[in-house]
Amino acid sequence: MKGPIIMTTAIFGGLHGRSAVVLGATGTIGTGVARTLVESGARVALIALEPGPLDDLARSLDADDRVMTVAADITDTAQLADARDAVLDRFGEVNIVVVSVGVMLGAPFEDAVPADWARMIDTNLSGVLLAAQTFSADLLAAAERKERSDLIFVGAIAAHVLYPYFAVYGAVSAAIAHLTRTLRAEYGPRGLRVHNIEPGFVEESFGRHLNDGAAVDLWQDVARSIEHPITPDHVGQLIAMTCGLPFGMNVAEMVLLPTEQG
Q: What is the pTM of this model?
């Protein structure tokens, strides 16, 4: 994947000297984002819940001087605050924050388990809000010095596309999409760029959480219809490109789809 990454950074500018945080770093997409940011020259703090997978990811990146790990629950404000302090101690102020967290659960609405709704709302919405707020002051400080500063949400096309059995997941995804729009209205005049990157079908992605037969069947139908899915590195390359834009330019929203996914 290094060829496309080099091409992207050559056109839009590399990320050398910038400090990034990837929340949800050990997830399918988060791993690709972390790998691409490291290869693009950034210092990268990896944040996720389990320390074991974090350590495995850090070793695979093979950039000890530019990678650190912090185990934290994004739904816990105290743990997030401790994670921020650890990142500031190691890398100083951050100017790239990628929030790539979430779980996708689905079922026919009349049969759905409310605990599954609560899990998605807690992680995909409340956790995302807390994660973004925790690092917002650092991002704003960099932006107000006229430095490139980026808050990136990895959303989902379910914010726009209507999938049966995924009503609540779609509703939460739509909330994140509108969050990015309102934050751009609030933070754009202060120089902070806010982006929403919405991938379509990504190989080995969220479908692993599904536990309802009807939802699994629908997801497998989608998977069978796509011969060339998006890879985590594709998402990472798009984010690196976005962060590499000159100060004052903001890719507000971008949907990345496999060509076969209409």
A: 0.91
